[in-house]
């Protein structure tokens, strides 16, 4: 009767419904980011640490002994207390990926005559008394989308349980365990997770695997206190024998304290719903207490207010833009009428100007004739030969006959010598030709431009003396006026 009264008290506590929600994320009892036992869709921020120290108590049923038919009063309807003291640390590798490490101390206790069963692959009779180091759990969690400020977030996780547990005591199977899962956050209040766990096989029995699922709700009672309620299911499958499925309803508080409110004191009452039908034989009451550290996310109420303010500002800006657009359209219509009148007045002038411009461009587009002369130089020299001077005399005559004519003198070298030396020599050859035209014939130097092209644009191959001789040149281009 005392157990039944405790069960009814637990149901009454679970009926308390918090009103306002906020982000209540912290390390779970296994170290990953979440509520008490339910993982959520969040992860640690990059470079941040978390810490969790929890004591948990669950009430569980043993697995039947494989192949053993029991006769009364011998029975395998036997429950035991599973106590765990665990310490965990977590680290945000990136804003989307966290690692966690959890070290548990396990303690299993039960005592009843004529009872027999299997726990973690070890056979127990009349008394279950096992304690020792459990399997160290190393986990990783990756947030696929969302974040602390998003309406929805989703993460995937995987873990391995190293075979550090004492299988002789029965607190672990003695084998490496592993698992994986996915979890979601819906707004700041709801968390949902599903997963799979293989605890490994014991020496004598194939231990059942676990399908895990749960939903949690976190609500705020004040700025520092979150009320958390979880329903977590453990469904056993496979193995030589499986215990009954467990459905844990947990409710409790998470009180934040310290500078920045990053430390949290956790407590909760746990009720195993599957055992409520037989509280005379089983006491389905458990619970948890713990201390956690976590870099808390921003208050989502503030974020929501900021989003609402931003939306209101955007709406005001949109309306202002619409009004400005309407005023601009009216002003544009007025100006369009004025512009039409102005264009009508200017149309004839524009047509005449276009005809004149077309005539001018046609005149400018007509190609001006040009005359080219080429003079050659000895290797390494900028001295003008008599033949070169004769050709320059002809160029001077053309420039004198056409006062509008201009000239460009392009100096070249063969491919021998360095680029720097060749450019200086090509410049000197062009300058020598211009100097001759200016000094000898009195041509205005402003009408003559000189350019150095060194060994560029060869007119013959530089592999032979004859080819190199052709390339040692200056080209005078006379653009007639």
Q: Which fold name corresponds to the CATH topology of the largest domain?
A: Porin
Sum up the overall morphology in one term.
elongated
Structural classification: alpha+beta
CATH architecture name of the largest domain:
Beta Barrel
Estimate the mean pLDDT confidence. 88
Strand content: 35-45%
Q: How many strands in all?
A: 19
Please state how the strands of the largest beta sheet are arranged side by side.
Answer: 3-4-5-7-8-9-10-11-12-13-14-15
CATH superfamily of the largest domain: monomeric porin ompg
**What is the CATH domain class of the largest domain?**
Mainly Beta
Distance between the termini: 123 Å
Overall tally of domains:
2
SSE sequence, one letter per element: HEEEEEEEEEEEEEEEHEHEHEHE
Output the number of helix runs. 5
Helix content: 25-40%
- Low-confidence stretches are 1-22
Largest sheet: 12 strands, antiparallel, barrel
Rounded radius of gyration (Å): 47 Å
Textual characterization of the structure:
- The protein is of the alpha+beta class.
- It folds into 2 domains: 2-298, Porin (Beta Barrel); 370-479, 60s Ribosomal Protein L30, Chain: A (2-Layer Sandwich).
- 26% of the residues lie in helices and 39% in strands.
- It contains 5 helices and 19 strands.
- The protein has helices at 2-14, 300-365, 386-401, 419-441, 465-471, and strands at 26-27, 33-34, 49-61, 79-92, 97-119, 122-133, 137-145, 152-161, 177-186, 190-198, 209-222, 225-237, 246-257, 263-272, 285-293, 370-376, 406-411, 448-452, 473-479.
- The protein has a 12-stranded antiparallel beta barrel. Strands 16-19-17-18 form a 4-stranded mixed β-sheet. The chain has a two-stranded antiparallel ribbon with strand order 1-2.
- Helix 3 packs across helix 4.
- The protein is elongated.
């Amino acid at each position: 009767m005392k157990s039944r009264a405790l069960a009814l008290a637990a149901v009454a506590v679970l009926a308390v419904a918090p009103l306002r929600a906020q982000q209540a994320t912290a390390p779970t009892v296994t170290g990953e980011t979440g509520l008490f036992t339910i993982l959520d869709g969040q992860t640690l921020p990059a470079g941040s640490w978390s810490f969790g120290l929890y004591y948990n108590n669950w009430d569980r049923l043993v697995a039947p002994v494989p192949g053993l038919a029991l006769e009364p009063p011998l029975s395998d309807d036997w429950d035991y207390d599973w106590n765990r003291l665990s310490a965990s640390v977590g680290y945000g590798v990136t804003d989307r990926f966290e690692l966690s490490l959890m070290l548990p101390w396990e303690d299993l206790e039960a005592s009843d005559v004529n009872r027999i069963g299997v726990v973690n692959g070890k056979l127990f009779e009349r008394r279950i008394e096992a304690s020792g180091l459990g399997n160290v759990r190393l986990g990783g969690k990756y947030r696929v989308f969302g974040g602390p400020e998003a309406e929805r977030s989703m993460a995937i996780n995987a873990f391995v349980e190293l075979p550090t547990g004492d299988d002789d005591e029965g607190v672990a199977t003695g084998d490496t365990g592993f698992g994986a899962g996915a979890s979601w956050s819906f707004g700041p209040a709801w968390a949902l997770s599903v997963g799979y766990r293989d605890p490994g096989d014991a020496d004598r029995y194939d231990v059942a695997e676990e399908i895990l699922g749960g939903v949690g709700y976190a609500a705020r009672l004040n700025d520092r206190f979150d009320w958390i309620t979880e329903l977590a299911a453990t469904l056993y499958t496979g193995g030589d024998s499986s215990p009954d499925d467990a459905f844990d309803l947990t409710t409790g508080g998470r009180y934040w304290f310290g500078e920045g409110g990053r430390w949290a004191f956790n407590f909760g009452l746990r009720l195993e719903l599957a055992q409520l039908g037989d509280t005379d034989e089983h006491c389905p009451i458990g619970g948890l207490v713990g201390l956690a550290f976590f870099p808390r996310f921003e208050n989502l109420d503030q974020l929501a207010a900021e989003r609402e303010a931003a939306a209101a500002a955007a709406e005001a800006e949109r309306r202002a833009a619409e009004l400005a657009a309407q005023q601009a359209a009216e002003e544009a219509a007025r100006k369009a009428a004025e512009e039409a009148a102005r264009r009508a007045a200017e149309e004839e002038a524009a047509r005449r100007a276009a005809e004149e411009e077309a005539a001018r461009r046609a005149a400018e587009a007509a190609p001006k004739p040009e005359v080219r002369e080429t003079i050659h130089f000895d290797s390494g020299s900028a001295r003008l030969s008599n033949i070169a001077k004769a050709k320059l005399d002809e160029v001077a005559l053309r420039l004198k006959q056409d006062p509008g004519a201009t000239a460009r003198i392009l100096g070249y070298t063969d491919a021998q010598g360095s680029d720097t030396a060749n450019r200086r020599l090509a410049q000197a050859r062009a300058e020598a030709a211009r100097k001759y035209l200016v000094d000898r014939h009195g041509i205005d130097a402003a009408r003559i431009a000189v350019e150095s092209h060194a060994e560029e644009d060869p007119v013959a191959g530089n592999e032979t003396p004859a080819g190199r001789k052709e390339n040692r040149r200056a080209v005078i281009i006379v653009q007639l006026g």
